[in-house]
Request: fold
Amino acid sequence: MTDEAMSPLRRRMIEETQQDYVQIIKKLAAFLGRSPDTATFEDLRRFQLHVVASGVGAAAINRHVSALRFFFRVTLKRYAIVEHTHFIHEPCKLPLVLSQQEVARLLDAAPGLKYKAALSVAYGAGLRAAEVVSLKVCDIDSKRMVIRVEQGKGRKDRNVMLSPLLLDLLREWWKAARPRGWLFPGRDPVQPMTTRQLNRACHAAAQLAEIDKRVSLHTLRHSFATHLLEHNTDIRVIQVLLGHAKLENTALYTRVATKTISEVVSPLEHIAQKLKSAEPPT
Reply:
């Protein structure tokens, strides 16, 4: 893919992956005390045990495996050594979801109009952090009332809904800051806001709102999907809005949509009703 054809979001994702891989190979070199290209099978085994012993989660361990495989297979052409690297299965955990009241408190506590608008996009349109910061002013289509997401996860473009309330907030932000390129520019206006800045703002807002949960920006995306499901939005529509390739990924939210779950009538109730209706009149 040429630089001209590559979207800013895709370019940012590649750059972040490259930075992660470089840091991991630096860690390998520090662990070995010599150049990482001299690593043996036993060296890689000891390094992976060291990573696991550090207490990091499954996702971080798998990132280390990906970096090692790229370094030895692609960079060094040492194909045999990667047979000694193994991904681990990530346990399937239910996503953390905020109530609608908690979301409202978090957005109200956002540190400034810029972050309130950005966090509102994350919740109001269900976008990932990288998708929010990669938005441009021209991606907001007020005539069709959609937001265009270019080259999201899986290198796919998609449109998501633009609510009138969100549009009003974005117009308020635009009038205050007059962004020209990026919708949410960073400290250097030539560059967009970073995902780290956005996540820090989210954590700060959650703390100010006194939300006693481990909130991240992705929590807003989980809450978006769950709240839509609780309001009887078709799960296939939610799949398209989230940009999920597989319906099974979206179906996870059926397990945390408490309003939907609580409204299901237990078969015990049906039995009780039948028994009651079968009783002879007194």
